[in-house]
Design brief:
heterodimer, A: 113 residues, 4-stranded antiparallel beta sheet, 0% helix, 55% strand, globular, B: 110 residues, mainly beta, 6-stranded mixed beta sheet, 5-stranded antiparallel beta sheet
Chain lengths: 113, 110
């Protein structure tokens, strides 16, 4: 149990376009999900905490208007990178919270040309 | 954001050797977690520690929660090829967000 999926696993887009990444908890409900960003050879950095039915909480330095988060149901959170630029190219990982434990998704590799 | 200091940054060992790595923080945590991340994948939880001084094993892995609550250690005994990857520690205080370490990259030399 406690499986988290992400879609897509890889995405390549042109600069200026928007990209939506989905995070799903497959066999449990999660009122809280987290979005992380990981640059090559670096650690995971928390971007925002996604709460079902309410606004996301963003970490300092993360632009909420650029990284739109929607947690519309107990099993789905989405991250939309708006007007993507090459510097947004990264590995985006979500996690879902259950019983004081975070279960991580497999990640989404975003490449912005 | 804050990161925990993890050392060593990378390790090159031969198959069968034991591995030790540690994680230190300037602030205390009441939960320490150790994860392994394979290339292109999300992190997978290896061991969770909930009490200062706690020593917990998971197969060939052993981790300890430091007495000061500001550090943790992970040991891997008799390494095998599938141990290759990046190991991250993470600290948590209460139900707050996780703070990740800088990572230790483990490479096994044939």
């Amino acid at each position: 149990g406690a499986v988290v999926s992400q879609h897509p696993s890889r995405v390549i887009c042109k600069s200026g376009t928007s990209v939506k990444i989905e995070c799903r908890s497959l066999d449990f409900q999660a009122t809280t999900m987290f979005w992380y960003r990981q640059f090559p050879k670096q650690s995971l950095m928390l971007m925002a905490t996604s709460n079902e039915g309410s606004k996301a909480t963003y970490e300092q330095g993360v632009e909420k208007d650029k990284f739109l988060i929607n947690h519309a149901s107990l099993t789905l959170s989405t991250l939309t990178v708006t007007s993507a630029h090459p510097e947004d190219s990264s590995f985006y990982i979500c996690s879902a919270h259950r019983y004081n434990e975070q279960f991580f998704g497999p990640g989404t590799r975003l490449t912005v040309l | 954001g804050q990161q925990l200091n993890q050392s060593p940054q990378s390790m090159f060992i031969q198959e069968g050797e034991d591995v030790s790595m540690n994680c230190t923080s300037s602030s205390i945590f009441n939960t320490w977690l150790w994860y392994k991340q394979d290339p292109g994948e999300g992190p997978v939880l290896l061991i969770a520690l909930y009490k200062a001084g706690e020593l917990t094993s998971n197969g060939r892995l052993t981790a300890q929660f430091g007495i000061t609550r500001k550090d943790s250690f992970l040991n891997i005994s008799a390494s095998i090829p599938s141990d290759v990857g990046i190991y991250f520690c993470a600290g948590q205080f209460g139900n707050e967000k996780l703070t990740f370490g800088t990572g230790t990259r483990l490479t096994i030399i044939p």
